[in-house]
């Protein structure tokens, strides 16, 4: 599967209205596109950050949807978004285990890795990190997205509630450090968000 992520920052006071529009109208627009497989919407209301992830069957569907919805997406995000960054990814691993509650949390890690080491990172994540992280209480889903040409990766983890997200930090940090050393990856950023919406995606 393939993923498009849209990362927007702006005035926190304008975030709620745009998040609700994306959760309702935005989801409906995406659902009508060919090849759509799921959506995640995540917010940092304190700092003013929105992250939208959409999942697609193939690259052609992802690209077509971006072009089809470009104008409408800009209109919906305009009241909030002062900066917008769009990234395209390949989903190397995707696991969704259980339903999420109203207080669900999301942790996102961006990594840099040499393109030649991308497969090593994927193997390390799937074979070493995933079995350990799946034992962490409250984990509700996890994914690894990669950009082979750009030498980048993003690992996202969903937690059933905020308490589980907070409690997981130490254990997951140890797994992350072990994996980074083994796969020769460098952590670029570490962020946590509130889950506004997360629809299920199949295993990859």
Report on this model:
Keywords: Monooxygenase, Oxidoreductase. InterPro entries: ABM_dom, Dimeric_a/b-barrel. It comes from Streptomyces avidinii. The protein is α+β, with helices and mostly antiparallel strands and about 200 residues long. It contains 5 helices and 8 strands. Strands 1-3-2-8-5-7-6-4 form an 8-stranded antiparallel β-barrel, surrounded by 4 helices. Helix 1 packs antiparallel against helix 2 (about 60-75) and helix 3 runs antiparallel to helix 5.
How do the helices and strands line up, and which of them pair or pack?
Layout: E1 2-10, H1 15-31, E2 36-44, E3 49-56, H2 59-77, E4 81-96, E5 105-113, H3 118-133, E6 139-147, E7 152-159, H4 162-167, H5 169-183, E8 185-198
Antiparallel strand pairs: 1-3, 1-4, 2-3, 2-8, 4-6, 5-7, 5-8, 6-7
Domain ABM: 1-64
Keywords: Monooxygenase, Oxidoreductase
Organism: Streptomyces avidinii
